[in-house]
Specification:
single chain; mainly alpha
């Protein structure tokens, strides 16, 4: 299952699809935090969650906090 999830995550990065503004900045940061929480567990999908969190975090604006 982890390979299937990772394939979905990688497919998003590789696809030449139009990006849609689906989240506010605050929601996106919360999603990254939740994905990081999921990735910290030794469970199915943890690697894919870590990979997706990193992809999303790279696109978020840096904070000065």
């Amino acid at each position: 299952m982890d390979d299937r999830l990772l394939g979905l995550v990688d497919g998003v990065v590789d696809a030449d699809e139009e990006r849609l503004p689906l989240l506010t900045l605050r929601e996106a940061r919360a999603a990254v935090e939740l994905l990081n929480l999921l990735s910290s567990r030794d469970a199915e999908g943890a690697f894919a969650a870590r990979h997706l969190a990193a992809n999303l975090a790279r696109r978020l604006p840096r904070t000065t906090e």
